[in-house]
Design brief:
The complex is a heterodimer of chains A (346) and B (465). With 346 residues, chain A is mostly helical. Chain A is built from 14 helices and two strands, in the order αααααααααββααααα. In chain A, helix 2 crosses helix 3. Chain A is globular and about 90 Å long. With 465 residues, chain B is mainly α. In chain B, 52% of the residues lie in helices and 3% in strands. The chains are: A mainly alpha (346), B mainly alpha (465). At the A-B interface, helix 5, helix 6, helix 7, helix 9 and strand 2 of A face helix 15 and helix 16 of B.
Chain lengths: 346, 465
């Protein structure tokens, strides 16, 4: 019985409205995709269904790798999450740092009415969370030491809502820490300023803004249904098509659209790419990246090897430059150079 | 304070295992003093300290007997008898029978005669109390004000005299005498040596009795090693006669079976499940006493003295933390009381304010108590005193800032409830940082922690875009 419970536990995310793959959100995503294909792509009902449940997507080798990683990572997370700093610890530490610093007036905004506090807090949680996701994601692409980890996600050649779990465990650790730090800081800052009025506006227990993100088809980001928004909206919110561009192998799409829900960060920092009706994008990595969409061993261990390589190369470079400097300033070397120079002159 | 602490803990840890296994009691221990010729068989003696603990607790009870000035002179005289000593045999006021909890002694002299509190109170200056006074002067000042008060409570200044007197005395008398006298200079080679009686004709050696005295001030029951924190706690509260009555004679002997102030607060912290102050301190006392007994009336060797001092270090370190835990707890109470008073629109404001003043008295008393140890707390003491102040924020947000030439409290400053609540947070933060408190009762950041848990936001985990 216990074993059975544990197996069920692996799939608990599908019953948890805090998770993107909650069954309800998946159902809504299906409806959105269906309506999109019928209304905007003038598809027949039969073709629309065939397109949405394309077996070439859901039964591809890449998708099967996603499913396996989903299970393996669930087990891994069970072991690792008790070791991570909790949100409570971070919130308390930040709170006490504020108490010690005297920069802001403690309880200084207690006169603000409760609905306003809850509104501000709900927005702040969402925006800070989204912005730190953007930053983290950008670093995952730009920093040579992080890219090998994030490659696992980008190696997917077909995308399904489960691809959101196609992550190297180290990336899981980084994301969980990011979230704990971002949310823990916002909670403590608000509690410091507003006291116990702090609360969230929620629907089914989820921040209402996160809920809106999910019921407007967050699951379609990792899919082949390229829903686009009008250009001006794509400057504010990332459309599924924009995220699919992010996964494209085409060179002009490299390092674009890092955002999660909001596009404003990409717009601000110059990484925005609005959708232009691109069709049949090819997802995945170029061969030069030397990664695999399907081989689990490569996915779990290649990043470690690559990171080691990056570190080793950096060490060599540092040593070489330090060595070069040392040589240049070494007295004996300087003397030799001088002697050589004189010889040539004479 | 760090007198070979590591050695002490290691030795103690080893010793604790054995004492836990047999739930040893503190005494009886055989007579080792060679010059003794009487018929006693037990060398343990700390009834003088028990008497003093009872005197302090009785003072607390008396502090609440004022009628607003009418009986001031009479009450002050009565309190001074308990404080400074009396020719008469004084009745025990604090520890009286309570249904099913029968106490063996009913007068002070039945425990020990000729004892007082004043002579054993910290002689140094108490900077946390207005008026530039020494320890005994502070207690006398508090006694005078208590005698003038109505029921030991002064709403205008926010003082609860019974709490202030008792909690300060736990440090100024008990803690100070134990760690700064008996466990300190009296544990050196030449002071009260083990090859001489404590005083002429005594049945115990110099070291034996010095050690016993320190244990007496700590206030643990002799059988504390066999008590759960809840039991020790309920003995003080007179709620668990079965746990108290170690010899099963149907009455509670204050000399050996009662749990007094300092030990009670050790047990109180231990109830959190995060600390072991009571068994650690009692265990160290037992191991130290056994070591002295094992010398069989000979002078202690250097190695024995060093080991004894390491036990003394453990006691001092842990006891200091007990006082810090209590200060922490009441800073949290005051924090919560203010929150309650500010949120509450109901009519029981007076009741809430009374509880707040009581908790502040305990906070202030303990914060002063912790400053009476062997160590000068330096900047930590200054910060504690400034954050807590000479008085709490009162109903009109004014606070006591000092005393005038006639010794009357001056209240010429104001502080907001908000600012004072923040001070309580800072007090708790300081205590964590400086003393490493672990039990952390009434942690004012607990509300934040429960808010975080209640919000239960998704941590994302292994999901990425």
């Amino acid at each position: 019985m216990e074993f059975f419970d544990q197996i069920l536990g692996l799939f608990s995310d599908f019953a948890n409205p805090k998770k993107r793959v909650f069954a309800g959100y998946l159902g809504i995503s299906f409806v959105i995709a269906f309506i999109w294909l019928i209304l905007f792509r003038k598809s027949s009902i039969r073709l629309a269904l065939k397109r949405i449940f394309d077996p070439k997507v859901f039964f591809s080798g890449s998708a099967f790798a996603d499913y396996k990683i989903f299970i393996i990572n669930r087990v891994f997370t069970g072991f690792i999450s008790p070791l991570l700093l909790t949100q409570v610890a971070i919130a308390t530490a930040v709170y006490m740092a504020l108490v010690r610093s005297d920069i802001l007036p403690w309880g200084g905004m207690q006169d603000v009415s409760k609905p306003v506090v809850i509104g501000l807090f709900s927005v702040a949680m969402f925006v800070v969370d989204d912005f730190t996701k953007y930053l983290m994601h950008r670093w995952m692409h730009k920093w040579p030491i992080l890219w090998p980890i994030h490659k696992v996600h980008h190696a997917a050649e077909t995308m399904t809502p489960i691809t959101v779990y196609r992550v190297h465990p180290l990336e899981g650790v980084l994301y969980a820490s990011r979230s704990a730090i971002a949310q823990g800081s916002v909670i403590s800052l608000f509690y410091y300023l507003f006291g116990d009025k702090v609360d969230l506006y929620t629907v089914v227990g989820v921040n209402v803004l996160v809920f809106i993100f999910h019921v407007t088809g967050s699951n379609l980001r990792h899919s082949h249904i390229d829903i686009r928004y009008p250009k001006w909206i794509e400057h504010i919110f990332i459309s599924p098509a924009q995220h699919q561009i992010h996964h494209s192998v085409a060179e002009e799409h490299y390092d674009k659209n890092f955002g999660a829900a909001l596009a404003v960060w990409d717009w601000l920092f110059g990484s925005l790419h609005v959708s232009e009706g691109e069709e049949d994008l090819q997802f995945g990595l170029t061969e030069a990246e030397g990664h695999s969409a399907t081989d689990l061993k490569t996915m779990y261990f290649a990043p470690l090897k690559e990171i080691y390589g990056v570190c080793a190369r950096t060490c060599l470079k540092v040593r070489a430059s330090v060595g070069g400097l040392a040589n240049r300033f070494a007295p004996s070397r300087a003397r030799e150079e001088l002697t050589e120079q004189r010889k040539q002159e004479t | 304070m760090k007198r070979s602490f590591k050695l002490g803990t290691t030795v103690l840890a080893a010793g604790m295992v054995s004492s836990m296994a047999f739930a040893e009691t503190y005494g009886p221990y055989p007579i080792t003093e060679k010059s003794y010729s009487g018929d006693k068989t037990n060398s343990v003696s700390y009834s003088g300290q028990v008497a003093r603990n009872v005197l302090v607790d009785s003072l607390k009870s008396l502090a609440g007997k004022g009628d607003g000035g009418g009986n001031a002179a009479e009450l002050k005289a009565q309190m001074m008898a308990y404080f400074a000593g009396s020719e008469e045999d004084l009745p025990i006021i604090s520890h009286t029978d309570k249904d099913g909890f029968d106490i063996k002694q009913s007068t002070i002299n039945e425990i020990s005669s000729g004892k007082n509190v004043k002579g054993k109170t910290y002689k140094g200056l108490v900077p946390g109390w207005p008026g530039n006074m020494t320890g005994p002067e502070v207690l006398e000042d508090m006694i005078s004000r208590a005698a003038m008060s109505n029921g030991g409570f002064d709403a205008d200044t926010g003082m609860d005299w019974g709490q202030l007197i008792q909690k300060f005395a736990l440090g100024a008398m008990g803690f100070n005498q134990a760690v700064d006298n008996y466990l300190d200079e009296k544990m050196t080679a030449d002071n009260k040596p083990n090859n001489k009686p404590y005083k002429e004709g005594a049945s115990y050696t110099g070291k034996e009795h010095s050690w016993d005295e320190a244990f007496g001030y700590f206030g643990a029951a002799a059988h504390s090693m066999s008590l759960q924190p809840d039991q020790a706690y309920n003995i003080t509260k007179k709620k668990d006669a079965a746990a108290a009555d170690a010899n099963g004679d149907g009455v509670i002997d204050l000399k050996t079976e009662m749990v007094f102030g300092n030990a009670y607060y050790a047990a109180g912290a231990d109830r959190s499940g995060k600390t072991d102050y009571l068994p650690t301190i009692t265990g160290a006392f037992i191991e130290g006493r056994k070591l002295i007994t094992s010398a069989d009336g000979a002078a202690l060797t250097e190695a024995q003295l060093a080991q004894l001092q390491s036990y003394a270090s453990v006691i001092e370190e842990e006891w200091t933390k007990v006082l810090a835990e209590a200060t922490f707890k009441y800073a949290g109470s005051v924090y919560k009381d203010i929150a309650k008073m500010r949120a509450d629109d109901s009519d029981d404001d007076a009741e809430a304010y009374r509880a707040y003043v009581k908790h502040w008295g305990e906070l202030k008393g303990f914060s002063l108590a912790i400053q009476t140890g062997r160590e000068n707390l330096g900047g930590t003491a200054v910060r504690l005193n400034r954050l807590i102040g000479f008085g709490p924020v009162t109903m009109d947000e004014s606070i006591v800032t000092g005393v005038d030439a006639d010794g009357k409290f001056v209240k010429d400053a104001k502080m907001s409830w908000n600012a004072y609540q923040l001070n309580m947070l800072k007090v708790q933060d300081l205590l964590i940082k400086e003393f490493g408190v672990e039990a952390r009762a009434n942690d004012a950041t607990a509300d934040l922690a429960s808010l975080v848990k209640q919000l239960d936001t998704d941590s994302g985990g292994a999901e990425t875009d």
